[in-house]
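Lab channel / #folding
Pinned by the channel admin:
"Please post every new chain as: sequence first, then the structure tokens as a reply. Keep commentary short and put observations after the output so the thread stays searchable."

First post following the new format, from NK:
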Amino acid sequence: MDKYFYKTDGKPLKFKYYYKGKLRSESTKSDQHGIYTRITKMSDKAFVDEFIGRMGVYIKTYFKKTKSGGTEVAKYSTRMDPVTYKTINEYYVNGKRTTKKAYQKKVKSLGKLKKITYQNYNDVW
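Reply from TO:
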């Protein structure tokens, strides 16, 4: 089975990969600096929960479908600083760093969303 299929409620979902709003082939996924949005054909709005246990990173990303495929609307990430052991929270709206209040306002404006959860985040990269 193709490793880029993820199951939600027993139905496989196919993800497309985007970097800076442009559709990319699978080969460019190795670029760790790129933010790749994964949009399903089933829903025009969705959010993805990603958790990388060994690094203690949690990312929640909201997506909206566009004509070109999909775009990241809002993102929240939390991680622990390995030196000071303090939690670092980061908020993004339309790819730009922002405040928690602006992030929450954007998420609220999206309305009801479809949730997509990865079974194994490491399969994505």
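NK: The first strand starts at residue 5 and ends at 8.
TO: also worth noting, Residues 5-25+39-120 form one domain.
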